Amino acid sequence: MVTNIPVVMNNSKYPLLIYYFVVIISLVIPAFYFNRLPEEIASHFNASGRADGWMNKSSYFLTYYLVMLSLIILFTTINFFISRAPEKMINIPNKKYWLDPSRKEEAINSIKNFIYLMGALTITFISFVFREVYTANINRTYNLGNTMWIYLIILFAAVTYIVIKIYSRFNKTGNQ
């Protein structure tokens, strides 16, 4: 007899809404910085956070939007194809149990939601990195400071949490 396992995010629309909110914000916010930035922008920074590479403003924004659109396409495409992927390409604990036809839709929906959250985290992190670059150029300090390390630690902690949640979600079966 299979007992009901608490459904964790399999039917929730929150990860999708969070993802689209982050996507829209990441595409709109840079427009507010464009006119405030100099024509030549510090675009590369060494390990200590000091500018050591420059590019013109238009190229910088083109790079930003190419990076963001690539990430958006990547995460959206993964979620589009995950339900169509052969089972051998899906690697989760207790795969045979979770990809059984009676549970497959629930499992795929959970995977999609975790991917949307990872996408939102990644895009948010990249947006914050670019925001630090905007600020360093607008203030003409050409130094990123220690904030980048804080963003990186937060990203690492959030990704670790999501990986643990994914493992916990699929490590349980109806017999446990």
How would you sum up this structure, described in words?
The protein is mainly alpha-helical and 176 residues long. The chain contains five helices and two strands. The protein has a two-stranded antiparallel sheet. Strand 1 and strand 2 form a beta hairpin. Helix 1 runs antiparallel to helix 2, helix 1 runs parallel beside helix 4 and helix 2 runs antiparallel to helix 4. The N terminus is likely disordered.
Question: How would the blueprint of this fold be written?
Answer:
Layout: H1 14-34, E1 40-45, E2 51-56, H2 57-82, H3 95-98, H4 104-138, H5 147-171
Antiparallel strand pairs: 1-2
Distance between the termini: 11 Å
- Give a short account of the largest sheet: 2 strands, antiparallel
Strand share of the residues? 5-15%
Helix/strand/pairing category: mainly alpha
Series of H and E elements: HEEHHHH
Number of domains: 1
Nearest-angstrom radius of gyration? 20 Å
**Tally of DSSP helical segments:** 5
Question: What's the average pLDDT?
Answer: 90
Number of strands: 2
How would the global form be characterised?
A: elongated
